[in-house]
Structure formats: structure tokens, C-alpha cells
Amino acid sequence: MLISLYQMQPLSGDVPGNIGKIARAAMAAAEMGADLLVTPELGISGYAQGAGFASLAEGRDGPIMEALREIAADCGLAICAGFPERDGAHVYNSSVLVRPDGSAEFYRKSHLYGEGERAAFTPGSEPPQVFDLNGIKTGMLICYDVEFPENVRTLALAGAELVLVPTALPQGLISRRVADIVVPARAFENGVFLVYADLCGTENELSYGGRSVILGPDGDELARAGMMETLLVAEVNPAAYDEARAQNPYLTDRRPGLYRL
Q: Catalytic amino acids?
């Protein structure tokens, strides 16, 4: 499977504008033969919205989903996108995987980062799930979720071969360590492909770190972005990494009875 990643400068609060940007990226990715486009956390709305998320949030049957389904069908590829999701009185920081046939998978961010997110969103209460994408077992997390090793391990133990992580990582030394050290370690220690799609540029007073990356199960970078808007492409072939997994049998050599959480 050929995967594309769109490192994106968001148009703050401009849902139609951001959907248009994703549509253009999807068309470019499709022209290169990609089967999947992964876009950043809250790329549909912009991340720095604060109380504005309450008015931007939509349900799973709203215009945002309708637009993403149309783009996926027109371009013939799956799209992973982050959006503010409304469910009754609750607003979630969510991601969706929309296939060309209109079917979709959803995930709600479970680990909210900082007071701003906690004020705007309700944390998701369901663990990440594994689903099929073009014959590859796939799961989703969002940004801060991936920094907790239990989340990626949960997916790996459930059979995931590919983990999609829309993110909105800010600029800074600690963020750089996350993008360059922590995230590759998650791919390596679990033997999974990992797609980490960040925002870039600035939004209101927030600057994003970029450094989006597509990683192999051995932790190697298959494609890495800098600080600007970028469309990355890389091939995902789980069978090509059988030897790497054999040399790193962390999943089979675990001794859960010894671990105290």
C-alpha cells in the first residue's frame, strides 16, 4: 500500500477552506498512486480554537463527513482527518478514516493535553480499535495518545500493523524530542508502521513543530518532513519487515505477570 501524509498549515476556523486544502492534497496524492492520505489533528478546523470548537463541532453525519466521503470517492483513496466531533452536549477531539466506498472508522482522543484541550473537549473513553484497510490491520491514535506506550502496545497486541497518528505538535525542544525520538521508538518497540502527521506554520499565537514522519517497523524513517507544508509518500509492505520483527520479539517475549501498572 502506498501512503501519503499531508503536513498542513491550517486556516484557523475556516472549515470549508481546510477541506479544500485536503481535497487538493488528496488529488495530488491520488495522482502519485497513493491509497491513503493522512492529515493532522483538527486539520479540518484548525487546532488553536479554544472555546470556538463548540460552534465548529459536527456530528458523524454532518457536512464535514459528507465532504470527506465525496473527496475519498472522487480521488479513489482513503482519508484520515482530524475534526471536532459533537455528540449531544459533548465535544470530542476526533479522527476519522473514510474509505472510497463511504465506510468510516472513528476514534476519540483519550489523553487530552493541557488545560486548553481539557476545557474544550471531553476525553474519549474507548480504547483504540483495529480495523482493515486494504488488507492491512490498522489503528488510530491522536497526538498525545502516542506518547503513552500502552496505547500503541494495545494496538500491536490486537494485531495492528499500521498506526495512524494525526497530531498538532507545537514548536519547542520537548516537542522535537517527541517527533524525533519518542515516536520512532513506538514504531520500533511494537514492530508497526507509524504515520505521524503534524500541522505546520502558525495559527493565532501558536507555532507548530512540523517534522511529520512515516516510520517502518524497524524504527527507520521512510519519509520525513521539515517545517513547511509537505506531501510525503512511502510504501507500506508488512511482509518486507518479517526479519526485523523476528530480531525484535518484544510482543511474544513479554511477561505480563511480572508487570505492575
A: 41, 109, 143
